[in-house]
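User: Sorry, what's this?
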Amino acid sequence: MSIGGTIKMIEQDDGGDYSVYLGDTASMSSVRCSIDSVHKQEISTVKQWDNITVKGICAGFKADDLLGSDVLLVRCVLEKNKYLSL
């Protein structure tokens, strides 16, 4: 599935893998996109607050009343020529 939005945060784990969080900055909820390891070099082309489109596989939903809810996408890639201008 493809989804577009504003990058709230970019996170790198100890193994060097990236997750990009998309969503409204006023909301605790977000879409967490785990970037496919083959495409992780593409993350250097974007930064926080950029508007992007990613394509990935929906792996579920994580609900938390206190921390907000996350939709989880895995094996994500940035879609070329689909940077959003809002």
